[in-house]
Amino acid sequence: MVYFFSKRIQVIVVVLCLLLSSTPFCQSTEQKKSVPIGQLKFLGEYDVPFNHQYNNTTVGGLSGIDYDSTQQLYYLISDDRSAINPARYYTAKILFDQTGIKKVEFVNVTTLLAKNGKSYPDSKHDPGHTPDPEALRYNPVTHQMIWSSEGERIVGSKDTILENPEVTIITPSGKYIDTFSLPPNLHMQATEKGPRQNGVFEGLTFADNFKTLYVNVEEPLYEDGPRADITENNAWIRILKFDMQSKKNTAQYAYKLDPVAHPSTPAEAFMINGIPDILSIGDDKFIIIERSFSSGKMACTIKVFLTDISQASNIIHIPSLKTNATFHPAEKKLLLNMDMLGIYIDNIEGVTFGPRLPNGHNTLLFVADNNFNLLEKTQFLLFEVMP
């Protein structure tokens, strides 16, 4: 989220890879039917130095992560809106064992290319076509990448910029292939209808052996209700189901956000709770991250939920969740509140399964977006999945 940096800096004060004796989490062209998850055991943290340089680019803003089990490589998208370097994703090796993360080594950087074959412009030169990259997944069946952009919504007295969010397919070399069809309720509008600015396509995940793609909006659409607050207020977001063959949205599901974890200081200052990423675990179930930040508190509160949409209503034809309460929402169960780890947790925005540990257990890796801010961290967190 681009504004997350600008808001946060005002209130912040100075106060996978090669794994020894492991096997890949899943076959490269087939997803597991279901991953049993009882709890998450924290194994360790690794921080990349601020403004780490790789191949003439600044590493930062890492907002999405995915694991390629065939190549034993990780792909990480940066949410740099071509302001520091052209919009891009990184390839990395992450070495770890049951005692923690040993090394994060960047081995490649790939520029994301627009339909015209050129790198994307920055907001100073062409704000209507500047991307806001947030999530990235690799499809081992087609050997293609898919990434999401939040678009832009700036409504002012002088200038109005409306850029729709996008889900785009590219080659591993960054070349544009195609864009998914956008449902009408996800088009940016100058009136308070549709997506909020920087509250749109934050997370995505494949399912059904890569035949289905799920994409979530981070915050409620205007017509679905208010943004999350410090008290319960029915902050509904939508999880969208896309068919990979037709690239069309076939279903939408309602998910209720928790309240913001802490009041902001001062009370009227910026605060947020939203979903930065989702991860399919099979059988219509997901890991869903809720990331809460409040001005005056440097750390984020990160909650990890197990979510089930098998009994949820398809709300694709319900225009407003604020005025229609006849739907069944997704079920959610708290798996982990990272506040309980007793360590500083930054702006976690991405999650992926990694390789199995020698004991056969799956691993989860989370990555934090440092917003290119000296006071924040490019942070990796490693967990063992306990069945």
Write the layout of secondary structure elements.
Elements: H1 2-11, E1 39-48, E2 53-54, E3 57-58, E4 62-68, E5 73-78, E6 88-97, E7 100-111, E8 133-139, E9 144-149, E10 152-155, E11 160-163, E12 166-170, E13 176-179, E14 201-207, E15 212-217, E16 236-243, E17 248-256, E18 271-282, E19 285-294, E20 301-308, E21 331-337, E22 348-353, E23 363-368, E24 378-386
Antiparallel strand pairs: 1-24, 2-3, 4-5, 5-6, 6-7, 8-9, 9-12, 10-11, 12-13, 14-15, 15-16, 16-17, 18-19, 19-20, 20-21, 22-23, 23-24
Structural commentary:
β14 and β15 form a beta hairpin. The protein has a single domain, classed as Tachylectin-2, Chain A. Helices cover 3% and strands 43% of the residues. The N terminus is likely disordered. It is globular, with a radius of gyration of 19 Å. The longest helix has 10 residues. The protein has a 4-stranded antiparallel beta sheet, with no helix packed on it. Strands 4-5-6-7 form a 4-stranded antiparallel beta sheet, with no helix packed on it. Strands 8-9-12-13 form a 4-stranded antiparallel beta sheet, with no helix packed on it. The protein is an all-beta fold and 387 residues long.
